[in-house]
Design a protein that fits this description.
Elements lengths: L3 E2 L3 H9 L8 H9 L3 E7 L2 E6 H11 L1 H13 L4 H14 L6 E2 H10 L8 H11 L3 E3 L8 E4 H4 L11 H13 L4 H8 L3 H11 L4 E5 L2 E5 L11 E3 L4 H4 L13 H4 L10 E4 L2 E8 L7 E5 L9 H11 L5
Antiparallel strand pairs: 1-3, 2-3, 4-6, 5-6, 7-8, 9-10, 10-11, 11-12
Length: 320
C-alpha cells in the first residue's frame, strides 16, 4: 500500500485488518504499531497516514517538501517562524529522550515551557510540521488519547529502507495496491507533480501493466485480480474511495453526500460489491453488537454476511 490514510485511528486499524489474511485480529494490528513496525504520522498531503516503519523516512523526504513550503503562509499567520519551530524541536527532544511518551496535552505544555504559545491552532501546526521534519511521530494510542514519541526512537535512521528511485518505488506501491488507476490519481494521492509521477512511471514501467480504456491510460499490477462479487465492509476514510482523484468508477456522484453528509469532511464506512460503493454501514448506536447496513438503493442487502463475520472475527466479538 505504501501508506494508508489514518486520521481516524480505529478506521485505520480496520483498513489494515481488512487487507490482511482472514482471521487477523484488531489486537494484532495494534501490536504492529506498539512494536514500531508500523508508524502513524503526517506522511503526505499534510494528512495522517500509517506506513511501514522502514518506509517512513524516504516517504517523508519525497512527499513533504512541497507541503512544508505551502504551510509557511499559515505559519506566518499564526505568528510562528523558524525560531519558534527550532525552540519547540529542542524542547521536544529533551522531553521525549530515553523513550519517553507524551500526550498531545503534555506536548503543548512542553511548547509553552519553551516560550511558544500552543493555543489558536498553533500547537497542532507545530506538531504537524515537526513530524514532517522527522522530529516526532505518533506513539501508542492511550484509549482515545494521542501520544507522541521521537521518530529517531521509533524509526531509527540506520534501519530505514532507501530505495534506488523513490519516485519509481512510490509508483509501484501505489499502482500495485490502488490500480487500475491513472497518473493523475497518483499525483492526487501523493501530492507530487504530474511530471514527477510520470518520471516515476517511466522508471517503474517494467514492473507494472499499462492499458487504455476510452482514451485514458491506466496502470496496475501484472497480478491484478478482479475483486469479484463478494461484499466488503470498508472503514471510513478508506483508500478505496479517497485514494483517487477521479472516483466515478466506484461511486455514483449522486450518492457522494450519503458518504460525507453535508460535505463535513467525515467519511462514513462504506459497502462495496462488484467494485462499486453501494451503501454505508455502522454499528448500531444502542446495540453495538449489531451491524446496520444502509443501501443507497432501497433493496435488501445480499452477500454481506461473510464480510460481517470477518469484521466480527477481527474485533473478536459476536456481531448480528
Amino acid at each position: 500500500m505504501g501508506a494508508i490514510q489514518a486520521q481516524d485511528y480505529q478506521a485505520a486499524l480496520w483498513a489494515v485488518g481488512v487487507r490482511c489474511a482472514d482471521g487477523v485480529k484488531r489486537s494484532e494490528v495494534e501490536k504492529a504499531l506498539a512494536d514500531r513496525s508500523v508508524i502513524r504520522t503526517w506522511v503526505m498531503r499534510g494528512t495522517i497516514h500509517l506506513a511501514a516503519s522502514r518506509d517512513v523516512r524516504w516517504m517523508l523526504d519525497l512527499l513533504t517538501p512541497r507541503v512544508l513550503a505551502a504551510m509557511s503562509k499559515r505559519a506566518s499567520a499564526l505568528g510562528l517562524d523558524a525560531t519558534s519551530f527550532a525552540a519547540c524541536a529542542r524542547a521536544f527532544r529533551r522531553a521525549l529522550k530515553d523513550g519517553a511518551i507524551l500526550t498531545r496535552e503534555q506536548m503543548y505544555q512542553v511548547m509553552e515551557s519553551a516560550g511558544v504559545h500552543a493555543g489558536s491552532q498553533r500547537g497542532y501546526h507545530v506538531l504537524c510540521r515537526l513530524a514532517q521534519e522527522k522530529v516526532i511521530c505518533f506513539g501508542p494510542q492511550e484509549g482515545a488519547r494521542q501520544t507522541f514519541v521521537l521518530l529517531d526512537d521509533w524509526c531509527p535512521p540506520e534501519e530505514a529502507y532507501v530505495p534506488a528511485s523513490p519516485l519509481a518505488e512510490l509508483a509501484v506501491r501505489y499502482f500495485t495496491s490502488h490500480g487500475p488507476a491513472t497518473d493523475k490519481d497518483l499525483a492526487w494521492w501523493s501530492g507530487l507533480t504530474l511530471r514527477e509521477v510520470r518520471q516515476g512511471l517511466a522508471e517503474a514501467s517494467g514492473s507494472l501493466s499499462r492499458y487504455e480504456w476510452e482514451g485514458t491510460v491506466y496502470w496496475t499490477s501484472p497480478e491484478f485480480e478482479d475483486p469479484g462479487s463478494r461484499g466488503l465492509l470498508l472503514p471510513g476514510f478508506d483508500e478505496y474511495l479517497l485514494g483517487y482523484a477521479d472516483r466515478q468508477h466506484v461511486l455514483d456522484a449522486q450518492y457522494a453526500q450519503k458518504i460525507v453528509p453535508g460535505s463535513n469532511g467525515v467519511f462514513r464506512p462504506i459497502l462495496v460489491q462488484q467494485g462499486r460503493i453501494i451503501g454505508t454501514w455502522q454499528l448500531a448506536k444502542r446495540k453495538r453488537s449489531e451491524v446496520v447496513l444502509d443501501m443507497f438503493e432501497k433493496t435488501a442487502p445480499r452477500g454481506f454476511n461473510p464480510a460481517i463475520q470477518r469484521y466480527a472475527d477481527y474485533l473478536d466479538e459476536t456481531l448480528d
